[in-house]
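Justification of computing resources. Each target in the renewal requires a structure prediction run like the one illustrated here; the chain below, 292 residues long, is used simply to show the kind of job we budget for.
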Amino acid sequence: MFHGSMVALVTPMHPDGALDWESLRRLVDFHIENSTDAIVAVGTTGESPTLDVKEHIRVIREVVDQAHGRVPVIAGTGANCTREAEELTRAALEAGADACLLVAPYYNRPTQEGLYLHFKAIAEAVPIPQILYNVPSRTACDLLPETVARLAGISNIIGIKEAGGGVARGRRILELCGEKLDLYSGDDDIAMEYMLMGGRGTISVTANVAPKVVHELCTVALRRDREAAEAINAGLGPLYTALFSEANPIPVKWALYEMGLIAEGIRLPLTVLSERYREPLRQALRQAQVLQ
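Resulting structure tokens:
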């Protein structure tokens, strides 16, 4: 249903932390002009933990309205409270989102049965396409492939963004789920391998700053052209490293500020990128030919 380069969009903010709606709308147009295949609003990269519910829903609405059907919009609506996730997912449906991205419940560390019942309840409560999101490094729980396979039998659970366990984890999900579920990479540095082995795309941090290049990478990788994909991917390698020198989205927001696309705002407890990481990130942006 969704494929290619799907940007995990940042949420622009003024230096005082207020949301910058004008810059948000400009970013949506920037991505459409640079061939991004779908926009993911208010995920981790969009600082969802620091937005209140009204802000969260308004960001979704603003992105949907600005995209105006030109590209699909996927709304981040996950929570560690099942009822809250249902409410956010319902609000995203009402706002006009094309799908929702639901992170595994964080901090409270549910069992696999709890994870299954959590996602099943949301899918049954809200009739919108839903993409699971597994990122154990942030959530302290791991949505195992066997549980993903159980969830793949629910009609509106259509994909998973996998960011734990490397290439082997992706291969195992493909083996268990086959055509019942689309696999997306949540780790930029292995996204190419995911697509070459049958994944449908990437939900990417790097696409924030290099949308056209990530789109080109996805295009060749999805047609299984390893040689062309490796050539493009090599140029992005330093950027993959630099964009995770501190916790995401700290580096990518600073990079977008350096590119003149957003202000320097970020909300506590996150802080602006440390001075020692700035020049390596500048160099990586130049190498990827997105900064002069």
